[in-house]
Amino acid sequence: MDGVIIPDHPLIQHKLTLLRDKNTARKDFREIMEELSILMAYEVTRDMTLKEVKIETPVSMSTGKKIFGEEVVIIAILRAGLGMVSGLLRLLPLARVGHIGIYREPDTLNPIYYYKKLPVDIKGKDVIIVDPMLATGGTAVAAIEFIKNISEAKIKFVCLFAAPEGIKKIKNNFNDITIYTATIDHGLNSNAYIVPGLGDAGDRLFGTE
Ligand code: URA
């Protein structure tokens, strides 16, 4: 699908299955989500630009390649996005991290931002928005809109489970967002949960179920 990247790797498939399993204990659930986020970070950083540098090995002079000038900002959508931050930071240890809490006002469906704390001046930076579950796409679209309004950042949206409805919503609203997801599931149930999904990601991460 155009603009949607689904890394195809046995480790990702395996770990998704463990996350889905309702018998996976909280400690394991957190660790597996972190591991999946590391694997997704590997894919998300694939287009980073490299520059050749001179180095000296213990044996000889040589050249190598290094990533330069990519200032990455990770923005976690609360709450479940928190479960992905440590994994991304394992591969992007210098990234700065922002947080956005959003819900939809039930009558008007207007986004209500109940928490926002972003690194100052994210103009022109590479922004990676994370939320493990792309369900209706409502909060994802609101978060992307918010970032677009305050910066000209290049935005990638990274989740683990996506519903076709959520992907469609992002695509209908923006034509310049790449979505990274570990799987596209069947769809949403009447409570807007992803089917088969993994249930409530925040509850399973934080033990609030
Ligand atoms: N949020 C979740 O935590 N799970 C879903 O299935 C959908 C949204």
How do the helices and strands line up, and which of them pair or pack?
Elements: E1 4-5, H1 10-20, H2 26-44, E2 50-56, E3 61-67, E4 72-77, H3 82-91, E5 96-104, E6 111-117, E7 126-130, E8 133-134, H4 138-150, E9 154-158, E10 161-162, H5 164-173, E11 178-180, E12 183-184, E13 187-188, E14 194-195, H6 201-206
Helix pairs in contact: 1-2, 2-3
The protein binds uracil.
Please tell me about this protein's structure.
It is a single chain. The chain is an alpha/beta fold. The chain is 33% helix and 29% strand. It has helices at 10-20, 26-44, 82-91, 138-150, 164-173, 201-206; strands at 4-5, 50-56, 61-67, 72-77, 96-104, 111-117, 126-130, 133-134, 154-158, 161-162, 178-180, 183-184, 187-188, 194-195. The strands form four sheets. Strands 1-11-9-7-4-5-6 form a seven-stranded mixed sheet, sandwiched between helices. The chain has a three-stranded parallel sheet with strand order 8-10-12. Strand 4, helix 3 and strand 5 form a beta-alpha-beta unit. The protein starts with a strand and ends with a helix. The mean pLDDT is 95.
Notable characteristics:
globular, 209 residues, seven-stranded mixed sheet, three-stranded parallel sheet, 29% strand, 6 helices, alpha/beta, 33% helix, binds uracil
